[in-house]
Design a protein that fits this description.
The complex is a heterodimer of chains A (about 220) and B (about 270).
Chain A (H helix, E strand, L loop, with lengths): L13 H35 L2 H15 L3 H11 L9 H26 L3 H9 L4 H31 L11 H12 L2 H31 L7
Chain B lengths: L2 H20 L9 H7 L1 E6 L8 E2 L5 E2 L1 H13 L2 E6 L5 H6 L5 E2 L13 E3 L4 E3 L1 E6 L7 H4 L5 E5 L4 H8 L4 E5 L2 H9 L5 E5 L3 H4 L8 E5 L6 E3 L2 E3 L3 H16 L2 H10 L14
Helix pairs in contact in B: 3-10
Classes of the chains: A mainly alpha (about 220), B alpha/beta (about 270).
Subcellular location (chain A): Cell inner membrane; Cell membrane
Membrane topology (chain A): Multi-pass membrane protein
Family (chain A): Belongs to the binding-protein-dependent transport system permease family. HisMQ subfamily.
Chain lengths: ~220, ~270
Amino acid sequence: MSYSLIYSQVTGHIPYLLAGAWLTLQLAAISFVVGWVIGLFNATILSYGPRGARWFVQGYVTFFINTPLLVQVFFIFFVLPEAGILLSPYAAVAIGMSLNAGAYLTEIQRAGFASLRRAEIDAATAMGFSLPQMVWYVIVPHIAKALYPPLANQFIIQVMTTSIAAIFAVEELTGRAYNVNSLTFRSLEVFSITAVIYIALTLVCSLALALIGRWLFRVQAKVI
Amino acid sequence: MTDRRRLFVGGAAAAAAGAALVTPTAASARPLEDVLRSQELRVGVNPTLPPRALFNERNQIDGFEPELAAAIAQKLGVRLALQAVGSPDRIPMVASGRIDFVMGAMSRTSERAKIIDYTVPVHSENYGILSVAGRGLTTLEALNRPEVTLAQVRGTTAIPYIARVIPRAQVLLLDNYPDRNRAIAQGRAQASFDGVDAVRFALRPFNQVQWDVTAVPEFGVTYSGLGVAKNNHSLRNWLNIALYELHNDGTIERLWEKWFDGPMLTKVPHSPFF
């Protein structure tokens, strides 16, 4: 291949790329937290709610799981303005990613609720636990252990998914990589550095999530 | 195998895969004689830049550049194979010999010429301001205010100029020109400073909006050539001669007028000396 890798022409842009990585992390965190709250609310309805509400939630989940995130954000970014709703690029992407994550996190948390055994609740009741005690000492530890690994995986997926934000004018890591690439034409160098930053980002997130899981919920997630 | 050993082996495999991705392989750009021997000219075009290249109603790649590539292939006496390329993959595609040259508004800049060789210019690129009519956004001074948002296409030549000359304006970087035009029409941005050669074609879907298109000669004119792999002299020399002939017999201007709804705004001065 008549192409020489010259990283020195790109390394000057690394701080610019790292600032994009910080935005990537923010976007992933916001969409995950909002999606988690949506998912918790929906999973509660699916597990214990009235039939009408369950249908509504199931419709939401079916819609968002069966359409691409790109199409969903495109709708929010370009179709809503036709109805007079003009959101900033960051808000449009954050809302789209949150709604999308909410659908997946609904299913994850519903499965967690379903894993709760009736016998554990009966045992706690027989031992005279109050409802808050039952939630804190019986329900949360059980559900947390079941849910923590898939929730952590979903967060990593959120980090990767932020790359679609570049299409909608959000200058996260991938968007900035495209900018540097167009300036220097050093595609291999730019995107290999970007890949390394993504790997570092997800490894750090995995490590942090594993430590949080051990500390908060005593989940035996592998740190390394 | 212990967990630690498995982790080590997995890490080593990932590192090897990564190294394979970023290490040049044996594939290389094809010189002229290889193109002739294979009886096929492989050309990269970017179909997200209409009317330079686009997918037509039969979902085939069409446009100014595919037709020009066909004329070049005809001169060479080989068949044409078009390859759709995007911004990040176009240079590796040329360098690895997957395509023989790349088209797609390859504006010549000294920075880019460190990576790729250019032929003589194919066409000029003229710059100006695109805005909704009646808002007075027809000068660079009018754009240079924080309340003005410019919708631009990511990776285009105008971006560094905007950063230097219109630094107070907000910039919204979008993925393609239809999205750029839609953003301005919807009020997400007020204007754009970019090439104006293709606006007549690009604004057709937005005919309910009254547009102002104002030329900005201060920017100067840039020229686009064909992008050839570094040091592929035999192919580049032949392409220069072919382009001279295609300029001289009016083919390039005729194709331009067909696809851009009018003559090239700045004629390319073609010379028999390269």
